[in-house]
Amino acid sequence: MYTEKVMDHFSNPRNMGEIENASGVGTVGNAKCGDIMRMYLDIDENGVIKDCKFKTFGCGAAVATSSMATELVKGKTVQEALQVTNKTVMEALDGLPPVKVHCSLLAEEAIHAALWDYAEKNNIKIEGLSKPKEDIHEEEKEPEY
Ligand code: FES
C-alpha cells in the first residue's frame, strides 16, 4: 500500500523536532482525522531557509510527508519553498494512496503557515502567499494528483 520511500520517511523521519526562536512557526490540523502538524523554519537575512523541523501528531503518512517536506524546503528561498506543493511532496515519496492525499496537504499548508508567520513577524509580504487555514481538508482545496 505504501511506497518504500513513504515507509523510509515514516520509520526514519528527517528533521523531527523543533527550532528554538524559529523565524516562522506554522501549525495546521485536520478536524476530521484529528491530526496536527507543526513546522518550524529558520530563515536567514537573504530569505534562504537554513533549517526546517517538524512535529506531527498524526498518521504515518503525515509523518512521512512532513519529513519529506522539510527536506524539500531546506536550502530553498522563501519563494522557491512556496512552489513545494502537496503534489511535489507526493511525487518525491513516489505517491500516496488516495485516502492519504489530505496528509500531504497538511504538509504543504504547514509550510505556508510557517512562511506566513515569518512574513508577519518581519512585516513583509510574500508574493503568492495567502493566509493559511487552520483546518485543512480536501473539500476546501482540490488535491492535485
Ligand atoms: Fe489525517 Fe493522515 S489521516 S493526516
Structure description:
With 145 residues, this protein is of the alpha+beta class. It has one domain (4-122): Sufe protein. Chain: A. Helix content is 39%, strand content 17%. The protein is built from 5 helices and 3 strands; from the N terminus they run H-E-E-E-H-H-H-H. Strands 1-2-3 form a 3-stranded antiparallel sheet. A hairpin with a 4-residue loop joins strand 1 (24-30) and strand 2. The longest helix has 22 residues, at 101-122. The model has no long low-confidence stretch (mean pLDDT 93). It binds FE2/S2 (inorganic) cluster. Residues 30, 33, 35, 58-59, 61-62, 100, 102-103, 106 line the site of FE2/S2 (inorganic) cluster.
Tally the helices: 5
* Strand adjacency order, main sheet: 1-2-3
The figure for the number of domains is 1
Q: Considering DSSP H and I runs of 4 or more, what fraction of the residues is helical? A: 25-40%
Shape: globular
**Span from first to last CA?**
17 Å
Overall mean pLDDT? 93
Quote the beta fraction: 15-25%
Q: Over all CA atoms, what is the radius of gyration? A: 14 Å
DSSP strand count: 3
Q: What is the correct CATH architecture?
A: Alpha-Beta Complex
CATH class: Alpha Beta
